[in-house]
Amino acid sequence: TKELGKNGYSFYDSNVRTISSREMQLEQGLHKALEQDEFLLHYQPRFDLHSGRMAGVEALVRWHSPEYGMVSPAEFIPLAEESGLIVPIGELILRKACEQNRRWIDAGYPPVRMAVNLSLVQFRQAHLVDRIEQVLRETGLPGELLELEITESVASQNERAVAERLQAVKARGITVSIDDFGTGYSSLSYLRQYPLDVLKIDRSFIRNLPHSSDDTAIVQAIIAMAHSLHLSVCAEGVETKEQLDFLREHGCSEVQGYYLSKPKAAEEIETILGTTIAS
Length: 279
Ligand code: C2E
Ligand code: CA
Ligand code: CA
Ligand code: CA
Description:
- This is PAS domain S-box-containing protein/diguanylate cyclase (GGDEF)-like protein.
- Helices cover about 45% and strands about 20% of the residues.
- By secondary structure, it is of the alpha/beta class.
- It has an eight-stranded mixed barrel, surrounded by four helices.
- Helix 3 (about 20-35) packs across helix 4 (about 75-85) and helix 5 (about 85-105) runs parallel beside helix 7 (about 130-140).
- The two termini are about 35 Å apart.
- The structure holds ligand C2E and calcium ion (3 copies).
- One calcium ion binds near residues 179, 180, 200 and 236.
């Protein structure tokens, strides 16, 4: 399921997994998709609750397959991770996202940060930082306008390698955020070990706001902790005005979700770049 795929971890430590014929076909399809450029990106805006401004967008990959139709990333990203194809696919996504942001800058739109999801498998690559640098160089995008979203599972990796990679990325001015915060890892010690900028609260904690007293307590605690650690905090999956009001009232820094905007194609994003929050 989607939830299992989220932390990118359950797939590896569970019992032997049976691979369906659809999965085998899709994995074959991914090779072709890469060659034939069947991937495109949609972008979901993220708003700063203090200024009300659109602070950034998150790039979300879409696979439009002639054979299988629209395949959800929740389905094909885990397959790409298992086969290692996520490395070239992820690089292509990074490049497309940076190129798009560069085009928006050149067209004179107010600058926004482009957030790109980075899989644990990509993060493990020794040449990751070189590739990121290369993409920034070739697209001419300042590191300040790039954000990398990694999941908590990264924190379970070799500490020194993680710290070195994150420091190298930070040295380029790139923002680092923890995606799906609260779902992936049992220890919080990584929060003080690594140079991080943003916690993205998983949408499972946002869904039942403000009615669930457990979830309001958890979300308030995450926001308070983020502030004391000098981290910014972004709530994902905001679908209602009530949720938005709660988050604003409790000092959440940024929000993202269908209530503000669904992920959209680049041309649609252009019409709202630089707008302020609809409240
Ligand atoms: P994610 O990184 O947590 O991305 C957010 C997902 O939640 C997106 O689903 C987005 O469309 C959806 N979403 C946003 N706002 C709302 C809301 O208000 N309500 C609900 N119910 N959903 C909302 P999407 O695009 O299907 O992506 C699913 C997952 O696939 C992503 O979760 C991410 O883990 C992975 N993914 C997507 N694009 C990429 C990519 O380029 N690279 C990698 N490595 N993973 C990606
Ligand atoms: Ca899998
Ligand atoms: Ca994400
Ligand atoms: Ca997320």
